[in-house]
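This protein record is not my work; I was only asked to verify it. Where you disagree with what is written, explain briefly why. This is what I was given:
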Amino acid sequence: MKFIEELVVEDFLPTIRSMLAEALRDRELTQREVADVLGISQSAVSKYAHGEVARNEQIAADDRVVDLVENVADGLATGDMSRVQALVEIEVLIRQLEDGDLLADLHEEAMPALVEADIDFSVHDPDSRIRTTEQVRSSVRRGLRTLTSMSGFATLIPNVGSNLVECLPDATTVDDVAGVPGRIFDIKGRATVPSDPEFGVSEHAASVLLAVRNHVDVQAGLNITYDPDLIEAFEQAGYTTVAFDSEAREELESTIGEAVADAELSETFVLYQTGGFGIEPISYILGPDAPTVAAAVRSVN
């Protein structure tokens, strides 16, 4: 009797770890860095690198496995993907391959009696919340990398600081919105991100995003300084720009609703308010995800 979990341990995991170790080394990570990222010993990395660990060629040749290895290696090497997200993505693929797929076929080869049995394996939910939250945080990281590598972005940061935020698909509160703890600040001409994206850490940018979402299908936003020339640059680049009343802070949702109600909005667009007594003028870039929002800013900077 052979359990499908044994195939995962004996065939799938050594294969994908070997492929990941090779892919990370190809991305110029040191043996120690690969060991740290994968949570294995340096001697294990050495064995994988020198082909001393046997791979299951059927698993190694599967396009989904190959694609996953490349995506995970890219994410881990750049820091866009956390180890938690990498684990979840691999777990999801394992359960997919167990469910009447490649691993199930290998299991039937090892246990021919299963061919005639009607067995339905339970699987992990590919749309689990932890997977979704990690994907959102990864998206924010990619957007932040675009912003911090952008020449001159620091000059667009308002006095209150900027924040790049993205929310879960079913977001209703600020706890469902990921952003930068402490915001992004201009420190000696450099846009500085103090910490890794987390949920529930942005009150202002998250509130604006949630208010917009009640009227428009967006999932990400970024606040930057207001400047008439910048608004004109967005318009010339093809982005819709809409002004709203900065004085109506207690009625943010209805104010934004009135502003966007009749506007023909581009997929990524700009909301802005020109300030008031004790209120700094701010522009808000809204769009489908954090990298797209960041790219819009880069296109006019």
Q: What stands out?
A: Residues 4-26 form the longest helix (23 residues). The longest strand covers residues 220-225.
